[in-house]
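Incident log, structure service

09:12 report received: a user says their structure output differs between two submissions of the same chain.
09:20 pulled the input from the user's history:
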Amino acid sequence: MTAAGPIDPLPDQQRAVLALERRSWPGPGAKERAIREELGISPVRYYQLLNALLDDRRALEEDPVTVNRLRRVREARRDRR
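09:34 re-ran on a clean worker, output below:
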């Protein structure tokens, strides 16, 4: 339990998105293929879900290393704009 109270766990699909994002990819197209085959969604939908997860405290508690890394990447992109 956190100071803000108990939180519900992440749904399986969101946990699968984080798990896929943790992996490394051998070459172009491999990640997109895995998104379609393993998650059954389009890459565009995957990145929409992933971006929303970066602002979800449940995701941060589930996988702080991945979420914080992706937050830094997102901030760096915003700063370049």
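09:41 both user submissions now match this output. Likely a transient worker issue. Closing.
09:42 reviewer note: Helices lie at 12-22, 30-39, 43-53, 57-62, 64-80. DSSP finds five helices and no strands in the chain.
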